[in-house]
């Protein structure tokens, strides 16, 4: 927190810590997961619209119903990696998955 001109200014991290909890809590992890799923859904919707495709047309390209595309665009939670890759391939969008393991996991094999 920084105080300037009599106002208390907080960073985004401080606000999240206060309202949702520190990063290592289950509440914060759930919040961050939900946020990531919403962002993926938004990216799918934006890419689809930029290509001028309807949800039904995108669904046909990857072999799913329009309703599944609608669910993906609202939140990509509970979806397989295979489905996400097929969606992004159909949208001519590059997919990159980054996995970061804690240091202590790297040396236990």
Account of the 3D structure:
Helix content is 59%, strand content 6%. It is mainly α. β1 (2-4) and β2 form a beta hairpin. The model has no long low-confidence stretch (mean pLDDT 91). Strands 1-2 form a two-stranded antiparallel sheet. The protein is extended, with a radius of gyration of 19 Å. It has a single domain (2-106), classed as 434 Repressor (Amino-terminal Domain), CATH 1.10.260.
Structural class: mainly alpha
Inertia-based shape:
extended
Total strand segments: 2
Instruction: Specify the number of helices.
Output: 6
Largest sheet: 2 strands, antiparallel
SSE map:
Elements: E1 2-4, E2 7-9, H1 12-19, H2 26-50, H3 55-62, H4 66-74, H5 81-90, H6 103-106
Helix pairs in contact: 2-4, 3-4, 3-5
What labels describe this entry?
mainly alpha; 109 residues; 6 helices; 434 Repressor (Amino-terminal Domain)
Brief characterization of the structure:
By secondary structure, this protein is mostly helical. The protein has a single domain, classed as 434 Repressor (Amino-terminal Domain) (Orthogonal Bundle).
